[in-house]
Amino acid sequence: MSNKETRRWIVGITGASGSIYGATLIRYLLREKYTVHLVITDAGWRVLHDELGWNTSKRNEAIIEQFGDQHLNFKYHPIQDIGASIASGSYQVDGMVIIPCSMGSLAAIANGFSNNLLQRAADVMLKERRKLIIVPRETPLSAIHLENMLKLAKLGVTIAPAMPAFYHKPDNIEDMVRFMVGKAMDSMGIDNQVYSRWGEDDGGFTKNT
After folding, report:
1. Radius of gyration for the alpha carbons in the chain, expressed in angstroms and rounded
2. Rounded-to-integer distance, Cα 48 and Cα 55, Å
3. Tens digits of per-residue pLDDT, 47-72?
4. Closest Cα partner for 94 from 10, 181, 183?
5. CA–CA separation, 43 vs 85, rounded Å?
6. How far is C-alpha 171 from the chain's CA centre?
7. Residue 111, helix vs strand vs coil
8. Could you read off the pLDDT of 142-157 as tens digits, one per residue?
9. DSSP character for 203?
10. Residue 160 above 90 pLDDT?
11. Fewer CB near the terminus (10 Å): N or C of the chain?
């Protein structure tokens, strides 16, 4: 695989609570001119409707309504499109982020199942040794959940649970969302000022606006 940065990222959204994390990450990536390949599970669409009020009866129209008509740097892939570019290791991307990730999708990835495009794209990241960042959102966690996360971590996957910090004294939900999105972008290797960081010089934190 070439080490050349493509500025292409796959973003997966599953049926775990916290769909706002995925939607916010996509907006930041598009703002920074990254190409985004988006894949959403059927359960993910349900959560987008329930939590964010998306009109999901017409999915393509909902995508355009939320992110604009991004011809060159945005591509939405239906979950069962096994012929999509991101289903092949020959298609170059920098990596994949699944945010949020359900325990069902995590289990499938950890055990090599590829029953839909999201799972297949994650499997490609593993076999091609590309970055895979998973943001699980579940509590409490069973031993099965933890074993699956450990299995993936041993394969080099970054497990970044949706655990917002409070040291930066968030003013609202948006501050808490930006913290997790910024941490995800850190794991992606993308320089960002999305969230408030603990200050190295004064021992405190810098509030970003």
Report:
1. 17
2. 9
3. 999 999 999 999 999 999 999 876 67
4. 10
5. 22
6. 24
7. coil
8. 999 999 999 999 999 9
9. S
10. yes
11. C
